[in-house]
Amino acid sequence: MSSGLNFASFYATWFDHLHHLIHQLSSTPTDHHHHHLVHTIISHYSEYFRVKSLAAERDPLSVFSAPWATSFERSLHWVAGWRPTTTFHLIYSQSTILFQSQIADILHAPRTSDLGDLSPFQFHRVSEIQCQTVEEENAITDELSEWQDEESELMQRRVEASGKGEGLVRIIKKADDLRLRTVQKVVELLTPKQAVEFLIAAAELQFGVRVWGINEDRQRGNHPDT
Predict the structure, then answer these.
(1) Which of 49, 63, 68, 203 is within CB 3.0–4.6 Å of 56 for a Cys-Cys bond?
(2) Distance (Å, whole) CA 84 – CA 101
């Protein structure tokens, strides 16, 4: 069995467990348990990237093509996964939605400490992290472009050649490291309640994109792993 198929099996189990963790997070009332679950979810994402890294070392082209993902998911991919800067679009959109939902009471209500109540310092730090992430994203994109130019023949022939996939493995690992570090930095910046809302929103986006992709593939006669 290829490493791509092995990882597809791992991903299915990992994804189901993410559903379970997010359900726990959504239904847990106390901040103390929130802190534990937030840490558990971050560790869950870390395990995903660890196993993906091992799969990339065995078969980088398979991991890069992400056969376990739906066609729609792959259309949104950047270096075999979601763009790290998506994190900031999610923060800003959730912050705006929650702020607008509170606007009628904003002059009278106490601070809620949710994503609609980010402090000026938090906004400043989010902006700083975003700028740093964009720079790293661009550098990785440039590195991938250079690798594609140098290894275009390898990609076209889809052959296994000693040493020739090492560059792609390094790029995939850099991209996944940036994804994980971005989430970790943002979560560390947020209050426990804000971190909970952020992780729930991020997971719900991930769930929604996958369900949409599965439905689209079925309508087109494709059969993605579910």
Answers:
(1) 63
(2) 27
Going by C-beta distance under 8 Å and a sequence separation of 6 or more, which residues neighbour residue 44?
14, 17, 18, 21
% of the chain with per-residue pLDDT over 70: 78
- How far is C-alpha 140 from the chain's CA centre? 16
User: Of 58 and 105, which is predicted with more confidence?
Assistant: 58
| Token reading at 89 | 């679009």
Q: Report the chain's mean pLDDT, rounded to a whole number.
A: 83
Segments making up each domain of the chain, as ranges: 3-219
Instruction: Read off the tokens for 138.
Output: 């661009």
Grouping H, G, I as helix, E, B as strand and the rest as coil, residue 140 is helix
pTM for the model: 0.82
Query: Quick check: 95 and 201 in contact, CB under 8 A?
Result: no
Cβ(33)–Cβ(13) under 8 Å? no
Residue the block writes with tokens 């840490």 = 39
Could you give the angle at which helices 120-150 and 86-102 cross, rounded to 10 degrees?
150
User: Distance between CA atoms of 90 and 85, rounded to whole angstroms?
Assistant: 9
Cα–Cα distance, 40 to 164 (Å, whole number): 36
Q: How far apart are CA 82 and CA 209, in angstroms?
A: 11
Q: Is the pLDDT of residue 220 over 70?
A: yes
Measured from the Cβ of residue 8, the count of other Cβ atoms closer than 10 Å reads: 19
